[in-house]
Specification:
Length: 151
Amino acid sequence: MARSQQSYNKKENEKKRKKKREDKQKKKEERKLQAKEKSSGIEFAYVDQFGNLSDTPPDPSDKIKIKAENIEISVPKMSDEDRVAFDPVRNGKVSFFDSSKGFGFIIDSENSEKYFTHVSGLIDTIEENDEVTFELEKGMKGMNAVKVKLK
């Protein structure tokens, strides 16, 4: 007579796998039930006029009307007084300049900051200790002096 191909160990392993699948399914259903119970909190959150979250809707009588023409989505316009105060041309002194390599540093006379300058940003040829005027431009490692001219 032929013997069954399934051994005792195979049957036991199959039972363990089946039990593991059932346990996993039960845990999944329990998590779904817990998620439904937890979600019964505040369904809507409102923001009051002070920026605080609350569960009560705002009072319609406190609503402020703003005309669309009054909304500006840009940089504020500069007045003539602001333009006079903001002068892009700065004064300084060349502290170091290497003409063979084509770079140097300028010290600003207002705030004593050092700014890098490159030969490509020069208008006049400069040397060390020259009084110059320049403008600032954002570079890769900070602000660079450009449009450098002798005073």
